[in-house]
Specification:
Elements: H1 3-15, H2 26-40, H3 48-60, H4 67-76, H5 80-89, H6 93-107, H7 115-127, H8 132-147, H9 150-162, H10 172-175, E1 183-185, E2 188-190, E3 195-197, E4 202-204, E5 207-211, E6 215-217, E7 222-225, E8 230-234, E9 237-239, E10 244-247, E11 256-267, E12 270-272, E13 280-290, E14 293-295, E15 298-299, E16 306-309, E17 314-317, E18 320-322, E19 325-329, E20 333-336, H11 347-350, E21 359-364, E22 367-369, E23 372-375, E24 379-382, E25 384-389, E26 392-394, E27 397-400, E28 402-408, E29 411-415, E30 417-420, E31 423-424, E32 429-434, H12 441-444, E33 445-448, E34 455-457
Parallel strand pairs: 1-4, 2-5, 3-6, 4-7, 5-8, 6-9, 7-10, 8-11, 10-12, 11-13, 12-14, 13-16, 13-17, 14-18, 15-19, 16-20, 17-21, 18-22, 19-23, 20-24, 21-25, 22-26, 23-27, 24-28, 25-29, 26-30, 27-31, 28-32, 30-33, 32-34
Helix pairs in contact: 2-3, 2-4, 2-5, 2-6, 6-7, 6-8, 8-9
């Protein structure tokens, strides 16, 4: 076993993980345990090792350990009625699959299956009236269990889904620790009138483009971004409440781009950038983020977590930014109006349609923790109207400009904010205002243990 496999096994043992059917009725669990004991006893009176395996199984289904003796006695004396009782119990396909995987897990624990064990397994497959496709799924997944191979398991589950088999996904990690099924989604473009709704956690390779008139519903799922993976909503509709955007170590593009869209609201969305990529890029987009979180996002040039420009509506409420960084400006956010010189040279800006608008940012109740940048540790704003209230900046840092906030050619309304342990280079400050109207150190918020200076107006 690998180091991770060993850690997972110890975790299961220490936390006394329960069986998927541990919450069924006590009568259900007793009959189920007797059915399991029939395999344990099929070669004759069980050895001490076999009895220990049965005891563990009985404990996992939340039965008293001393039920082991009763289960062995009932299995050894089993008659046709005992079998009928078990078959009447296992009428749901979910119960049938779990039962068969339980049997296979025991039978192959010594990496071999005896002739009598094999015959019992085949008889149960027939008595449960499992289809050929169902048997293929069970035997395929038992092979993945034997090899402790999550990639094999993923292929088996994918094939079963293609055969319309109702897979008990939430129970499968019990039999193969660490397994999480992820649907593979390759490059695709949704055109006007097309809709796609995710049904499972998804691993994305390539670009997914949502064009005007199309809709992508992430359905609260976890989306993992691989090489060249990104979701570009260009005029279309995105539904992402409760979803997770997770960058893999192969990720190399901003995870989500919103372009030329109407009001898009995202709530309870988590972005994890793996210190590799930015979370969101927005252009000519009206966006509201509510209780979203951004962790370990990164961009080399600007906006470690968020890059926003050319819109009159960007609202953030109760969002959390942790350990985001950039080698340029704005460790967590870069907010740029159309006067920013670099915008006029970028292909990103050339995609803008409609009237050019001045950026308006409204932010309240947000938290920035250990956000870092070459300049503007947490937020860099250029040519914007800003309202920042009741937000906290903890241990943010920069080599140049403001350790927390830099503004240039802006108007700002700020109050009730807190700055703690924020550090900038010599001759800079926590907050630096350049050609900005409307703010003063006395109104912007409280400063504690910040250095070298709290506030500079240039």
């Amino acid at each position: 076993m690998s180091i991770l496999d060993n850690l997972r096994q110890v975790k299961r043992e220490l936390l006394d993980e329960k069986h998927p059917l541990a919450n069924e009725t006590i009568q259900f669990r007793k009959i189920y345990a007797i059915g399991y004991a029939m395999l344990v006893c099929v070669n004759g009176y069980p050895s001490e090792m076999a009895k220990d395996a049965l005891k563990k199984q009985i404990t996992l289904v939340d039965l008293p350990a001393d039920f082991k003796k009763l289960a062995i006695a009932a299995a050894l004396e089993a008659d046709p009625q005992t079998v009928h009782n078990l078959l009447q119990l296992l009428t749901e396909t979910r119960h049938q699959y779990i039962f068969m995987l339980d049997l296979y897990q025991y039978a192959q624990q010594d990496r071999k299956i005896t002739e009598k064990e094999q015959e019992l397994l085949v008889l149960f497959e027939e008595l449960l009236q499992l289809s050929y496709e169902e048997v293929q799924f069970i035997r395929g997944f038992r092979l993945a269990m034997l090899k402790k191979d999550t990639e094999v398991a993923t292929k088996v589950v994918q094939a079963a889904f293609e055969q319309n088999i109702a897979i008990p996904l939430t129970e499968l990690p019990y039999f193969l620790p660490g397994f999480e099924y992820q649907e593979r989604l390759m490059q695709m473009t949704l055109l006007s009138g097309q809709k796609k709704k995710l049904g499972y956690a998804t691993y994305l390779n390539g670009e997914v483009i949502v064009s005007k008139g199309a809709e992508l519903d992430l359905n609260g799922m976890k989306v993992t971004f691989g090489n060249e993976a990104t979701i570009i909503v260009d005029g279309g509709v995105l539904k992402a409440d409760g979803a997770q955007f997770i960058a893999s170590m192969d990720a190399n593009k901003t995870m989500l781009s919103l372009r030329n869209v109407g009001l898009t609201k995202l709530q309870d969305v988590h972005f994890f950038g793996a210190n590799n990529v930015r979370a969101i890029e927005m252009n000519n987009a009206k966006v509201e983020l509510d209780t979203c979180s951004f962790e370990k996002c990164f961009d080399e040039e600007r906006g470690g977590a968020i890059y926003f420009t050319n819109s009159d509506h960007f609202v953030l409420r109760n969002c959390v930014f942790e350990h985001n960084a950039t080698l340029g400006k704005g460790g967590s956010m870069y907010i740029a109006g159309t006067e920013a010189s670099h915008m006029k040279k970028r292909d990103f800006f050339s995609r803008i349609t409609g009237k050019v608008q001045k950026v308006k940012l409204v932010m309240s109740g947000c938290q920035f923790k250990e956000s870092r940048a070459e300049m503007s540790g947490a937020i860099h704003t250029y040519d914007a109207e800003i309202l920042v209230h009741n937000s906290t900046f903890d241990s943010c840092s920069s080599r140049g400009g403001g350790a927390a906030i830099d503004t240039l050619n802006c108007t700002i309304d700020a109050g009730g904010n807190a700055f703690t342990k924020c550090k900038a280079a010599v001759n800079s400050a926590v907050v630096v205002l350049g050609s900005t109207k409307g703010a003063a150190e006395s109104t912007i918020g409280k400063f504690e243990l910040c250095e070298p200076k709290n506030f500079i107006t240039k």
